Amino acid sequence: MSLIETASLTKDYGPVKALAGLDLRVEPGVIGLVGANGAGKSTLLKILLGLLAPTSGSASVLGMDIGTEAGEIRKVVGYMPEHDCLPPDVGATEFVTHMARISGLPRTAARERTAEVLRHVGLYEERYRQIGGYSTGMKQRVKLAQALAHDPKLLLLDEPTNGLDPTGRDEMLDLIKRTGTDFGISVVVASHLLGEIEQVCTYLLAIDAGRLLQSAPISTFTQRTPVLAVEVEEGADRLAAALAGRGFQARQDGACVLLALEDESLYDAIRDSVAELSLPLVRIQQERRRLEDIFRDDAPSAGGVQ
Amino acid sequence: MSAGNPAASSPAGSIYDLGYRHYEGKRRGRWFAAWSLYVDSLRGIWGFGRPTSAKAAPFILAGLYALPAVIVLAFSSIISNSIATGATNPADLPNYANYFAGIGTFIVLFLIAQAPEVVCRDQRYQVLPLYFTRAIDRFDYAMARLLSLATALFLVLMVPVIALFIGDILMSADAFKAIGSEWPKALPSIPSNLLIAASVASIALALSSYSPRRAYAAVGVLAYFLLVEFVPLVIYGIGHEAGAKWVDYLPLITPNTGLSRATDWFFGTPIPPDFPSSIGAGAYVLAGLVSTLLFTGILAWRYRRIAA
Fold first, then answer.
1. Spatial separation of the C-alpha atoms in residues B192 and B263, rounded to whole Å
2. Which in A168, B86, B122, B260 has the greatest CB count within 10 A?
């Protein structure tokens, strides 16, 4: 049974097409849904949740049709919206307990689950305080907790790292990764940041202007030719020119020279070039190809660096 | 900070960290979820589970509505003496039948304060998507909210009835006998207050649901209860003088006067002489029911359409 399946799913907002005949099929896992702002990510999530009705086309979640089995779907999904969705004058414990009960958990079970998920997302003593006094990072944790409270089979997270500082972002991503891979809950993470998707997801869906751009396991994007970055304190332009002269594809990027690591002779060439030019070498590092490349128009198909 | 004090950071806590655990227990359905929302909503109206300041408005306003009855109760011995000597006419005192007609406008204050509280918060803080992606659907949400407000209003309406009941028993010579003779007189309060509660709750909630801001919602509710109360009555007054027949139907749509006349039907009180005799008290009951259905429909429609 596939996790999500859509067939020519279309959503019009007046003249604007948010989704233009989207066909996709994904298996359970941690799925990254990438696209620029306005690409249709939120619209897709809302249609899958039954918050929006599609203009045409069909979709199913965990094998259940969004039109006829919406109530059944709602029982087994958890949703973390992009925007603020927390009343400021209640405590996190009370709010999450309430939401767990609205999901159909009996009172005592709701309390136990709340204590558990709040601890899971990393809220401790502050959970009895009113949400209005929380930092953005804590609010995001509460939002994730309410989505997890009823132990859903599928989590739909819309921009979960919005407004977080780098540390908070890493913690949130780690939390999502653990939830998805260690606990067997399928997760769809909508984000416009490819770096995030790359960190946590096993499968990538890229949409643009309501159309499917890419749909493939993450590994197919990251297993291509590795890139070698050579950082020098000065003279990166001279090094790039020297290496290009030796027949390697080199591109200067600030104080770094990026090279496509196609065979081992590159290391010798770098050593010789740096020695000849007597440049102060800082580091030589192999980098994974970034997912950004799939969106770069001039991305070289063979993996060469320009 | 945490680097300097490793004992306080997460590694120490991880000893007890069992990780995420799945929930294997019972999952209840839509009815349970709607019931949970109803209970929580009712608690919220009275400010339970909220800061202390949230309790002030509902309790003060409910107390205000009950005040005349409480005064009667407090001075019951003096009043019963005064009735015995003929100084006070019992018909001038608040009783079960005339209570709402006398002080019903105070219910509007309770509505202005608490109806927006029930529905505006979820729109303002954008909580609706969280509800609509759970076990309840949009209609269940609207009905649970409406029933909670109607229940709260029914409680407000019944407090003075109970106070009057106790007062009457205290005023009588034989308390046990008085209980037996009093309760049939108080009984029509239950259906009439149910109608009042359902009717005004549906109006106030339907209007409030159109604004995410409490203040605008409160103004809307106030405007409805003032305009729809007094404009028809003024037109009726003028038209009645001029001898127009169609104006006889206008008092039917007024919230307070209309419901007061509906109360008369439950108690069997004759309609006051300044009202047209062409329309019986039963018509006001019907008008109250129609208004309840209409505004419940508007509320349900609003939540069907609302973007979440």
1. 5
2. B260
The pLDDT of B90-98, averaged and rounded, is: 84
Name the band, by pLDDT with cuts 50, 70 and 90, for residue A297. Answer: very low
Residue B201 carries which side chain, given as an amino acid letter?
A: A
Residues of A in contact with B12 (CB under 8 A): none
Contacts of A48 by beta carbon, 8 Å cutoff, 6+ apart = A4, A59, A61, A66, A73, A77, A156
What is the number of CB-based contacts under 8 A between chain A and chain B?
A: 113
Q: What is the DSSP string of A286-299?
A: EEPPPGGGGG-TT-
A251 neighbors A209 (Cβ within 8 angstroms) = no
Question: Quick check: A186 pLDDT over 50?
Answer: yes
Of A85, A105, A117, the CB nearest to B127: A85
Phi and psi at residue A7, to the nearest 5°: -130, 120
> CB B95: neighbour CB atoms within 10 A?
19
* % of chain B at pLDDT higher than 70: 94
Place of tokens 């780690």: A174
DSSP code of residue B269: P
Average pLDDT, stretch A275-292?
A: 77
- Asked if A104 lies within 8 A of B27 by C-beta distance, the reply is yes
Comparing alpha-carbon positions, the chain B residue that sits nearest to A185 is B22
Q: What residues of chain A have any CB closer than 8 angstroms to a CB in chain B? A: 49-51, 70-71, 74-75, 77, 79, 81, 83-90, 94, 98-99, 101-106, 109, 113, 116-117, 119-120, 122, 124, 130, 146, 148, 150-151, 178-179, 182-184
Please tell me the predicted confidence (pLDDT) of residue A225: 60
Quick: pLDDT tens for A106-125. Answer: 999 999 999 999 998 988 88
Tell me the C-alpha distance between A198 and A292, whole Å: 10
CB A113 within 8 A of CB A151: yes
> What are the CB-based long-range contacts (under 8 Å, 24+) for B65-68?
B65/B103, B65/B106, B65/B107, B65/B110, B65/B156, B65/B157, B65/B159, B65/B160, B66/B156, B66/B159, B66/B160, B66/B163, B68/B94, B68/B99, B68/B102, B68/B103, B68/B160
Evaluate whether B157 touches B110 at the Cβ level (below 8 Å).
no
Q: Which residues contact B248 (CB under 8 A, 6 or more apart)?
A: B236, B240, B276, B278, B279
Distance CA B238, CA A104 (A): 56
> Whole-angstrom Cα distance, residue A149 to residue B169?
52
Which is higher by pLDDT, B280 or B156? B156
Q: What is the pLDDT of residues B7-50, one digit of tens each?
A: 444 444 444 555 678 888 888 889 999 999 999 999 999 999 88
Domain ranges of chain B: 46-305
List, in sequence order, every beta strand (DSSP E) within chain A: 4-13, 16-26, 30-34, 56-61, 64-65, 77-80, 154-158, 186-191, 203-208, 211-217, 227-232, 250-253, 256-260, 281-287
| B148 or A210, greater pLDDT | B148
Tell me the per-residue pLDDT of A200-225, one tens digit each, with 9 for 90 and over. 899 999 998 888 988 888 877 666 56
Mean residue pLDDT across chain B = 88
Q: Which residue is associated with the tokens 């104006």?
A: B247
Sort out which chain B residues have CB atoms less than 8 A from A120's CB and list them: 19-20
